[in-house]
Amino acid sequence: MQLTQEETSHSIQGIDLAELTEQFGSPLYVYDADVIRRKVTALQHAFSSVDMKMKYACKANTNLSILRLMRSIGVELDVVSPGELEIGMLAGYEAGQITFTPSGVPFYEVQEAVEKGAIVNVDSLPLLEWFGQTFGNTKPCLIRIKPNVAAGGNIKIMTAHADSKFGISVLLLDQILEVVKKYKIRVIGLHQHTGSDIKDAAPFLQVADILLDTARHFPDLEVIDLGGGFKVSYKPGDEITDMKLLGNKISERFQAFCKEYGRDLQLWFEPGKFLVSESGYLLVKTTVVKEDPARNFVHVDSGLNHLIRPMMYGAYHHILNISNPAGALKTYNVVGYICETDTFASDRELPEVRQGDVLAFLNAGAYGFTMSSNYNARQRPAEVMIDNGEAKLIRRRETMEDLLRTQLD
Ligand code: LLP
């Protein structure tokens, strides 16, 4: 199922994108609630033959309205910090519906999360030892295994290869089992997360096999958690993860494993991008069009402070000229207003861009706002959710006061 943002889409649920910037200002993050619902349904369909649960990796987008929407459609939560846990609970989640997947955090953060009722994904042997000493067999946990498989859109977002910092290497299984036995730790699940932007089924199957093989050594499991990482379409024509094929193949292996294990387990996924990326748009206004001898530059009223993916990963975000869709095509470098080389797109063909035109960056729903900053003392944008054909402000634009709030004279 190919769920992409339409290249020609200049409106969401009948609401014109350019009008949204008139109403709420620019730059502006906009999310289409229907897209999120469709993505959730697509994943449910792909894994309908097994007991599958989604734990939305909310680092992708922590807006409370998005979390509430997820909750209302039966999606649970994966968090990576006390802050995300708090936001999740504010959105109405019970702690028991939240998995805490830390990465080398101070142990007191784990203690607080566990005491609140969240389930932790233990990611190191020292943490496992501490967990045993602190909680013995009184609290359940999952263990995050590093399967030593390299997959993902680029090296920065691969998290399961041998050199990655994440999880406990599967090669240390004997030591894991020793600590579990010593403290009678209640390991109810095994977890792994391979990386982000993974298109092919092969790495997902490879890590599933490794995790299921490892699971044979743990008699009291209730859950196998395969993480997130499904690829979405950033570029027109991008191939994406074939969810139907992946669903069939993983479910088949999972069912065979449950039969052998003698118990029906739950299969968890932690998608971030897959659920929210395509729902989001970053709308910006063109500040200056500069016809330089070397290049045509389009400057916009945004930059790496609002959408850092192109600069950080060389990520492609499709751009629409909302104000002049039928203009003659010209080639531009689309750049920001930050005092750094913040290039959103190089040599990009766009309908002629004029000063004041509204541009839309697609696929801005995941790792857009959550990775934004106040660099150059710039305020973060407002956020709007479109649902039932209505646009609602779900985060106000920051003010200078917000920026100064923590500074002391
Ligand atoms: N589970 C764990 C433990 C993770 O670390 C992540 C993402 C996910 C699930 C969700 O992965 P997703 O389905 O979104 O691919 N900022 C980067 C992506 C980094 C993802 C970090 N961990 C980007 O914008 O491409």
Task: Give a quick precis of the structure.
The protein has 12 helices and 20 strands. With 409 residues, it is α/β, with parallel strands linked by helices. Helix 8 links the parallel strand 10 and strand 11 (223-225).
Descriptive report:
Homodimer. GO terms for molecular function: diaminopimelate decarboxylase activity. Residues 29-365 form the Orn/DAP/Arg decarboxylase 2 C-terminal domain. This is Diaminopimelate decarboxylase. By secondary structure, this protein is of the alpha/beta class. Helix content is 29%, strand content 24%. The strands form 3 sheets. Strands 3, 13, 14, 15, 16, 17, 18, 19 and 20 form a 9-stranded mixed β-sheet that branches. An 8-stranded parallel barrel has the order 4-5-6-7-8-10-11-12, surrounded by 5 helices. The protein has a two-stranded antiparallel ribbon with strand order 1-2. α8 (201-215) runs parallel beside α9 (243-261). It is globular. It binds ligand LLP. Ligand LLP binds at residues 57, 60, 78, 101, 157, 159, 193, 196, 227-230, 270-274, 309, 313, 366-367.
CATH class of the largest domain: Alpha Beta
CATH architecture level-2 label of the largest domain: Alpha-Beta Barrel
Instruction: Give the end-to-end Cα distance, rounded to a whole number of Å.
Output: 56 Å
Q: How many β-strand stretches?
A: 20
Low-confidence stretches: none
What is CATH's topology name of the largest domain?
Answer: TIM Barrel
**Tally of alpha and pi helices:** 12
Helix content: 25-40%
The chain-level mean pLDDT equals: 96
Main beta sheet, described? Answer: 9 strands, mixed
| Shape assignment | globular
